Amino acid sequence: MTSGIPTAAISRLVTYLRILEHLEAENVSRTSSNDLAERASVTAFQVRKDLAYFGRFGTRGMGYTVPVLKRELVRVLGLNQTWNVVIVGVGRLGQAIANYPAASDYQFTYVGLFDVNPDLIGQEVRGLTVQHISELPAFARTTRIDMGFLAVPPDRAQDAAQSLADAGVRGILNFAPIVIQPRTHDTDAGPDLSPEWRGVTIENVDFLAGMKRLAFYILNPHLQHIQTEE
Ligand SMILES: NC(=O)c1ccc[n+]([C@@H]2O[C@H](COP(=O)([O-])OP(=O)(O)OC[C@H]3O[C@@H](n4cnc5c(N)ncnc54)[C@H](O)[C@@H]3O)[C@@H](O)[C@H]2O)c1
């Protein structure tokens, strides 16, 4: 059902969900594609098209019931299930992420923290004991890990990402400013993804890249650009 859906549509679903959360907090019970479109700075056609990838959520001419559409988007995005997350690299950024409470709004649960610094191993951060990265394989044998957040120095990120793939994670949120290269192996038909990387999604988060893009757009105001997605 979800093949052929543009990545941007998924980003917009996250934006619509955030808008619905705000509407619900303001006790607004109904919305429409026009209203959602205005709040998300997209067209109503775009809203309807994005939602149509996943089903029929509204009533023609009546719009959407906020809690119902919110519940449906939560279901589509998989936010109604528990996601076990490990953080690899528990330095400044890794600790800030571990201490940031919003992840628990949905069922993202930090289950493990991994580092290599002997001063950090054994320390408690938000109720979890930092373990050495060499413990990750054994940890993964007893605890399901769905996602890994990568907050190690750039020159360590590729190896750490491989450790996460070997541990069976299905998604990596990469904060290090490098492009992670999933391991491949040669076959008669050419290079193929190694089995541990099949189906693994990588998302990059880089605020420095955002600052660089901002610098460009500030220098080129005629290209003014307003990002409307996450
Ligand atoms: N995406 C963003 O917006 C953003 C913002 C800030 C920093 N960063 C990046 O995030 C990363 C971390 O930055 P920081 O300031 O927290 O660095 P830091 O030096 O404070 O922390 C990095 C941690 O990684 C640990 N580490 C090193 N090798 C490891 C390995 N193989 N396995 C596990 N842990 C390992 C180190 O011991 C250290 O504790 C860097 O790559 C940095 O460039 C990204």
Q: What's the total number of strands? A: 11
Low-confidence stretches: none
The count of domains is: 2
Please name the CATH architecture of the largest domain.
Answer: 3-Layer(aba) Sandwich
Given helix and strand content, the structural type is alpha/beta
Strand order of the largest sheet: 5-6-4-3-7-8-11
**Small molecules bound:** nicotinamide-adenine-dinucleotide
Radius of gyration: 20 Å
Overall mean pLDDT stands at 92
Percent of residues in β-strands: 15-25%
Protein name: Redox-sensing transcriptional repressor Rex
Function: Modulates transcription in response to changes in cellular NADH/NAD(+) redox state.
Organism: Deinococcus maricopensis (strain DSM 21211 / LMG 22137 / NRRL B-23946 / LB-34)
GO biological process, one term: response to redox state
